[in-house]
Amino acid sequence: MLATISWIALGIGLLSSLIIIVDVIRHPQMMAIMNVVWPINGWFLGPFAVWSYYKWGRLKAKDVDREDNRGMGAQVFMSTSHCSSGCTLGDAVGVPIVFFTSLTVAGSTLLAHYTVEFIAAYLFGILFQLFAIYPMNQEAGILGNLKDAIKADTLSLIAFEIGMFGWMAIVHFVLFQTPPKPDQATYWFMMQIAMILGFLTSYPANWWLVKKGIKEAM
C-alpha cells in the first residue's frame, strides 16, 4: 500500500512540475532562475506549487502586465521557494552519490547522506541565490555578489536542512525497521515529505532575513 501511495505522490509531483514547465516555456519569468525554481517546487509541493505559481509566479512573467499586489507573506513564500529549490536540487544530486559509492561517515549511511547532501544543497543554494542577485547588481562583480549570496542564503539553508534531516532521522530510526533505499519509490516519497518540512522550517528564517533587509523579498 505504501509503495502504491508513493508512486501516486511522485506522479502528482512530476505532473505538477510538467504543468509549470509548459507554462514557463510559454511565459518565461523576468528572473531567469525562477524558470528552474518553479518546476522544482512542483516536484515536492505538487498542486500547491501549481496554485501558487499561477497566483504569484505568473505576476513575474515577462509578458504579463499586471499590478504586483503580493503581500509580505507571498513575497517570503517566493524567497523560501527559491531557497528550497536549490536545496532540493542539491539533496537530489547528493542521494545517488552516496547510494552508488556506498559511502559512510563514522560507519553510518545516514551521516553520509547528511554530509554529502548538505554540501551539495549549500552549493546549489548559493548558486541559485547568485543567479538571482547578480543581474540586479552587476557592478559589485562576482565576488561581491557571492558574499551577498552567502549572507542571504546560509541561515535559510540551514533551517531547511534542519527540517529535512529531522524527518530523515525519523524515517531511519522510527518509521521503518529497514529504511527504504533510493532505488525504491517509497524513499523518494519520504524525500518529498522531507522537502515540505524543510520548506516549513525555512519559512520563518526567510521572513526574518527579508525583514532585516539581509535578503531581498522576491
Automatic annotation (TrEMBL):
Q: Give the keywords, sorted.
A: Membrane, Transmembrane, Transmembrane helix
Transmembrane stretches, start-end:
6-25, 32-54, 111-134, 155-175, 187-210
InterPro entries per the UniProt record, alphabetical: DUF4396
Q: Which Pfam families match?
A: DUF4396
Q: Where is the DUF4396 domain?
A: 75-215
Q: What is the name of this protein?
A: DUF4396 domain-containing protein
